[in-house]
Every structure is written in structure tokens, then in C-alpha cells.
Amino acid sequence: MREGATEIAPQAGAERWGKRFGKKKTGAGSREADKASRKKLYHRGKTCATRECAYKCQPSPAGPLCYNIPMRKPLRVVMVSKALVVGVYQRKAEAIAQMDVDLTVLTPPGWADARGSQPAEALYTTGYTLRTIPCRRMGDFHLHHYPTLGRELAALRPDILHMDEEPYNRATWAALRAAARAGVRSTFFTWQNILRRYPPPFAQMEQSCYRCASIAMAGSAAAGDVLRAKGYRGEIALIPQFGVDPQLYHPAELAAPSAGTGASGHVLRIGYAGGLLPEKGVDLLLEACARLRGAWTLTLYGEGSAQPQLEQLATTLGIGERVHFAGRRAGAAMPDAYREMDVLVLPSRTTPTWKEQFGRVLIEAMASGVAVVGSSSGEIPHVIGSGGLVFAEGDRDALHACLQALLENPAGRRELADAGRARALACYSTQRIAAETVALYQRLMATAAPR
What pTM was computed for the model? Predict the structure, then answer.
């Protein structure tokens, strides 16, 4: 209720009063007369656009003035996310905060895994609170957790805890239990697209998380299918973890063709971004590039255990001078890196324990106006759709044919890049992902709070 306004007794209250005492008081000073006087004071005969109000209220430049219903408070959400240590991903948090959400994001001080290390950044922080909190066993995917999170929830008193983590790790299990004790609704996120049964105690943690969250987020349809197969019975919302901001990821200005000996006089600039790991298939990319006819270069952005072997392979294939190992780039620097590419390739290969869960670099490159080529591993074909080329994973000849066609046909490459950008902005924009996330919050608020 607006400060200074007199509360209007609801009609239901008058009916209960009449039932209790057998009659309704009338005349001056009665409840009915008081109600009528307040209606005259606050409602000027204008149409009220507020659905919850049965009267006609006075309009104002900021919208209808209605004193007959309480003013809605912003939804209070705490999001815990190790992914948001990357500054460029924080645009999603800004977009959520613009949608009438009082948002606090808590991250670890950093994260390190097989792909390299990433200290926490604070790059896009407008409209919400971003803080780091202590994290034990940082870098251990299954066992990391946040020892002070229970105290954070008690102090912040959110309506919703958004745990941006898989349900089978300790962090999510501990967080959702703490939220349940505090009477806070909660949700979690999953990318897991392979049906795997975990040993104790992780299987029990996973089932506990299923019971605590009435709505879960899955980054793909395959991940949603895995949730169902493992016994989750709540609503599953298919929402990718992050989108792309077209203000950050956009095409470079068209430039004159580079000097070279390709069919168009252009040096085809091929790129890869991600971990230099065996399952990422970078060795296949090197072998396919070695057979290309025409001028090309290959730049590899990333770190990983396979880098020494890949460097040796490039030398063995006689292409060492054309291949540049650029190392790991900060997320904020990647938009410029994409604009230096003509083609991005994601040649992932499926293993018994992993297949590509999304391929975020694909949508970043597509939004940047770069043609993309991806293998058929996991979610890649669904992400690319009609906005790029897909080859059978592990098929070096098929990958070579895709790259040769793009090298020889610059106009076709440009059309493919345009189609990819249109798809990325239509399906994977940050604004769309944020809106779908807030809609999930609203549905979650309609469910029963834990007791």
C-alpha cells in the first residue's frame, strides 16, 4: 500500500462481519459508509487498468493510481553461480534485474578446471548486487560448496534461490537444503545430457535436490530427458544458461579481401575457441586444414592438457607456420577475437562420459557474423540449425569438404554468416533468456513454499 494512504477494507471482510454478528451496520460511521467515502476519495470515475482492483481509479503519468490493493514488491532472488565469475556472462544478471527483480548474485572468488583458471570479474553490475563468497574445494566440480550460504540466505531473506549448478554436486544439495530450512523456494540448472548413475552419496544428493525444487531448468531437450529418466517429477523449463548480447557480439565492418592465393584472393581465417582437450577434436581440425587448397590460417583460443600434442601434430603436418596458439582470452576480449575470424569450427567428439552440451562459442560467433561449422556431437546440430554447417563427428573428410567449400565461395560464406546471426538473435539473445528465467521465477512463486 502506498505510504500515507488509508487502507480500504476488502468486501470479503464486511461479509464475514455480517455473518458473525447477524447484520450489517449502516448509516453515518458504518463500515459501508466509510467504504463509500474512501471510494469517493481515491477513485475519480476513471478506468483503472489494475486488474486486482474492482473500482475505477485515477490515472497518473506513471500509470493508474490504485490504493485499493497493496503495492507489489520486487521479487527477491539470490543466484549462486560459478559461471558468473566470467564478466561477459553478467549481462544476463543485468537483464534479469531490469525485470522488477531484486537480484543478488553470489560467486566463488574464481574457478579453475582442465580448461584453465578464471578469477572472478565484476564487469557488468548495473541494477543488482554481485559479491564473492567463500568456496571450499574450489575447482572440484562435485565437492565444492559455499559454507556461508546459509547465513547469506538468512540475511538476504530471498523469495527464490536460483542455484546455477547441477543437482548431483554438493554445492547444490547443501544450498537447496538451506533454502528449504529457511522456507525459500529454489530451482537448479542442468546441462547433463548423458544418462549416468552416480555412486553414493551423489545419487542421494541428486534425489534430494529433485524433492526440493518444484521447477528445474535444463539447457537442452536432451538434458530434460535425462532429468525425467532419473526420476524428476516437477516442471522442466528448457532455458539455455546464457544468451548473447547483440551490443557486444556484432559483425565487423566489411573490409577489403586480404591478399592471398585462395579462389577469391582472400586468406580464409579459421578459428577455434574452447578447451584444448582430446574430446574437443582439435586434432581433427588440424588434419582437415592440412588438406585445404588455397590460403588459410588457423587461430586456436584456449588452454588444456592436449596443447603439447596439438603443437607437435601441427609441426608434423607441415602447417606449424599457419597455426597460431593464442592461449586463453578473457571473455570480454572474445567479441573482438570473433570479428577477426571468417569461420569458427567446433569439432567436438562424443566419449562414453561426455558429449557436447551446448557449444556457447557457436552462438557467440553466429551473433558476431561469423560462419560456423560444427560436428554432430550432442547439442551442436540443434544449436546451429539452419545457421551453419554440420558434419558427422570424427569425419575428417567431411570437415575438410565444409572448409574447402567456404574457402572457395565467399558469397555463400557471407550468406551463411547472415543466417547464423539471425538465428542467434532470434533464439539465444540475452534478453530472451532473461525473460524466460523471470517467467520461471513467477511460476515458482505460485507453488507452495517449503515448510
Answer: 0.80
